[in-house]
Input
Amino acid sequence: MSNVDVVVTGLGATTPLGGDVASTWDALLAGRSGVGRLTLDWADQLTVKIGAQLKVDPSEVIDRVRMRRLDRSEAIALIAAKQAWADAGLEEAGLDKERLAVSFGSGIGGALTLLNQDDILEESGQRKVSPHTVPMLMPNGPAAWVGIELGAQAGVHAMASACATGAEAMSLGLDIIRSGRADVVVAGGTEAVIHPLPYAGFANMRAMSTRNDEPEKASRPWDKGRDGFVFGEGSGAIVLERADHAKARGARIYARLAGAGITSDGYDIVQPDPECKGGARAMAKAIRDAGLTGADIAHVNAHATSTPVGDMGEIIGIKASIGTHPVITSTKSMSGHLLGAAGALESIATILAIRDGVVPPTINLDDPDDKLDLDVAAHKARPLEIHAAMNNSFGFGGHNVALVFTRA
Amino acid sequence: MATREEITSGLAEILEEVAGVNPDDVAEGKSFTDDLDVDSLSMVEVVVAAEEKFGVKIPDNEVQNLKTVGDAVSYIEANH
Output
C-alpha cells in the first residue's frame, strides 16, 4: 500500500461502440453490440467474417495528410489521448510538462503498416515504400506520438503484454506517480490490426468465434454456446494524476486508481492456467495494494473473452481471491476484444460503473455455463452502489494484471 | 514537352497530396523547407511522385540541390 493517492481526472476512447467515451458508455449500458459482418472485401476468403470495427473511422477526425504518417493504431491512440487530455483540463491548468509522462501500449503494434508496406515492396519495389514506414510500425509509435502531441517530458513508455497491455499501462502509470517521477500520466492502450493475416493466425488457433451469421451474438462470455473471441479495434486513454495535484487545481475526479497487481503464469505461451492461479494472485495483490480485502470488491469487469477455457478459469480465480459476492460482467460481449486496448476500455467502464452506480450488462448470456456460479449482470445493466471495483486483463504469454478502482 | 507552368502545377498537386501544401502557395521562388514546410521525409515522397508523374529519374545526390520549386522545375524540364 502506498501513501501516494492517484486519481483519474480524464477519459478518452474511440471504440466499436462510439467515437468517444460518452457514446461508448451509453452503448454499453444499453447492451448494444459493436460486432458486425466485416466490411472488408478479403473477409469472404476467411473462415471468420466478423469483427468489431471502429464506429468512427479515424480519417473522420484526423486530416488526410497527417493520416499518411500514422499507423491506424497510432491515429486512434492520438484521438483517445487527446480526448482524455482535454477532459482533464490540464492544458488550461498550465501543467509543467517535465512532470507529464506517457504509458501507452499495443498488443500487436503497427502490423497493418508492416503488412501494407510489404505488399508495396513486393509489387513495386523499394522506391515506393513510404519513408514513414518505420515510425509507423514501431511498437513504441503510439506512445511516442501521444508524448509528442502533449509535450510530455517525464518519460514515454510503451509496453507489450498482449491482451493485458492496456491494464499494464495503468499499472505502470500508477507506479510512475507513486515513485514521484511525474504528477500526471496519460495511460492507455490501442489496437488496430483488422487484416487477413492476424485474422488467419487467430482463426487457425481456433481462438475466434465463427458465428458469422449472427455477428452481434458471437461474443458471449460464460454462455454454453461460446466459441471464441471477436476481434476488435479501438483505443482507450486515462489521465492519472496525483490526488493532491488534482485537488489543488480543483479538477473533476472520476475515481481513484487504488491498487494494481501484476503476475505471470510461467505456464504456457497461449493457454491460460486452467485454474487461473496467476490471475488469482494478481487480483489478491491488487486488493492488498489498495489496502482492501476481497469483501470490499463489489464489482469485477472480467477479462472473459468468450473462449471455452479462459472464461471459466477466471471464475475460479475471482472466487479464490475475492469471494462469491461481486457482481461481474464482461463488456467484451458488446465491444468485442480490443486486445491491447481492452484493459484501457474496460478500466474506463469500471470507473464509470463506480461513478454512475451501475454495472454494464453481459449480453448474449442466454444459456450460462453449468459451472458459472457467480452473479453476472446478464442482459441488462444492473444498478449497484460500488465503493471498490476490479478490472482484470490477461494476455497471451501468461501476463496477468488486476486493477482496483475506488470511489473518489 | 511540358511548360514550366505545367510542371509547377504538377508539383503543386503532388505537394498538396503528400504534404497538404496549399497549391496557391506553390511558386518557383518558394523554398520547399523554409516556405512550404515540407520536411525531409515528405520530400522523399515528393521526389518519388514527381519521378512517376514526369517520367524522370531524380537521384538522391540531386535532391539536395533542389532547394526551391524553381530548382525542381528546371531539373525536370532539362531531364524529362
